[in-house]
């Protein structure tokens, strides 16, 4: 076995937010920012050094360690241990981790790390798992490493993304297909500069609140109900206002994913005004019904529309992080500069921007 590099992309979610963990629809894109694990086989240990943090982790091939692991090393340990549970033979790796994903920007840097490490470990042991089984290892690793009960979207995108396409994934049935992105539109990510860490945010609380709403609809899948049906069932079950609002967001968000896919695939060409309207509704619902936005993200979305975005909304788990905007490709750079200037003037914060390309899912290459 020779040296290899595994690149796993980060993701930006176009729409379908907080729907994945109730078996709903998501429409993310794998982007050209990501995590690379470069390494060679090591008979004894997993030894990985982070270029960004300058520290290392040394583990047994099954993820166990002599002393407690902290920081990013917790993800490596969790992935190694879960792969060992699934039968990965004991084989180590000696290498370095490089990342181009800003941490805490809501672009799923940790799922990219999980997936890159998982694929590098599988390669070192000549072991294979189907893409969605590997995605579930990465999903479970988040829970084990930092206690975040996240869904399947982020690691699935890192594995199943396709160049020039978004991924339409039904997190309940696990059916998925690629949806072509209009070549005239650029994906612009605008980072609010407010760091989000799901580990310390209200993510788990929101999920628990939604669970109460799901109990009220007899654990039916929100993606299978109309808003009127869900509201009616929940009211009759006497559910409180908070779980009702969380449920309303999720049911309507599934419908928004369908409307966006239809708008993107409109036979005569993408229906841009519908995309704009549906993204706006999605953002408002995350702000008012699911309550995961923050004033900085609301401001960025307003500024994006003021500066001519076709569509814009917050993206990712919320409580900080980024918005995603779809912008006419030839104006993308100027748009990003203008929105950042207005944002700095109105928020006293410095934002960052990325014009992202939609790329293929994780891949191994020889170095
Ligand atoms: C985070 C989680 C995902 C998903 C989003 C919200 O990115 O990791 O599983 O729940 O938040 O859509």
Structure overview:
The model has no long low-confidence stretch (mean pLDDT 96). 52% of the residues are buried. The longest helix is centred in the last third of the chain and has 24 residues, at 241-264. Strands 5-4-6-3-1-13 form a 6-stranded mixed beta sheet, with helices on one face. Strands 10-11-9-12 form a 4-stranded antiparallel beta sheet. The protein has a 3-stranded antiparallel beta sheet with strand order 2-7-8, sandwiched between helices. It folds into 2 domains: 4-177, Ribosomal Protein S5, domain 2, CATH 3.30.230; 182-356, Alpha-Beta Plaits (2-Layer Sandwich). Helix 1 (73-85) packs across helix 3 and helix 6 runs antiparallel to helix 7 (241-264). The chain is built from 10 helices and 13 strands. The chain is globular and about 55 Å long. The chain is an alpha+beta fold and 367 residues long. The structure holds alpha-D-galactopyranose. Alpha-D-galactopyranose is lined by residues 13, 17-18, 20-21, 108, 150-151, 153-154, 316-317. Residues 13, 17-18, 20-21, 108, 150-151, 153-154, 316-317 line the site of alpha-D-galactopyranose.
